[in-house]
């Protein structure tokens, strides 16, 4: 893990929208989860926090803004691949660019602006 | 129904993210659903389709792009109100602006670019 994160999902049929295609809200949810998780991982790397050390409380991020562009129907029955790339970190603010693909097909792109969540502080800027 | 749509939701606890707050992916899903539904309703009004006539196949829309700005944590246990306002229609393209509120608190805003889906044609432009 440097400045890129990868996740794979195979979705069940209950997430179908139009016949044979994944529900768009689920695509948004996957991009939200992968985005905040990636932002937290990138923040750990930037702060030299060892991701393998489970005794350290990990960084947790919340979403401030999420943009999704749907490029093609997301086919059911194909393993989905999510890739997150760090765009920039400025203090508690982290921006990540994402893609969601089914095989060779680029189904959606996502941009997330995530904020390092400090417990007992207001969530948002 | 003229150029505004309203929907209400009361969510169960399984949609909790951080303690007491609704999961962001669910907020995105609600805005996606309300956005495409609103776009379809606005398209019907624009085309003088009677929404009460169930013998006519209604317009169905798919999401091309969705942007969500999270303004405050969405509190669990409070009925949520979604409001959609028509921004513009150009042929098959429909833009809708949305808000998601819990009581007096504006929790999120959304912008959707939706496309009138023609069956057996490619989904996207």
From TrEMBL, chains A, B:
The keyword Manganese does not apply. It comes from Galbibacter marinus. InterPro entries: HotDog_dom_sf (IPR029069), THEM4/THEM5_acyl-CoA_thioest (IPR052365), Thioestr_dom (IPR006683). The keyword Cell membrane applies. This is Acyl-coenzyme A thioesterase THEM4. GO terms for cellular component: cytoplasm; membrane. One of its GO terms (biological process) is fatty acid metabolic process. It is a peripheral membrane protein.
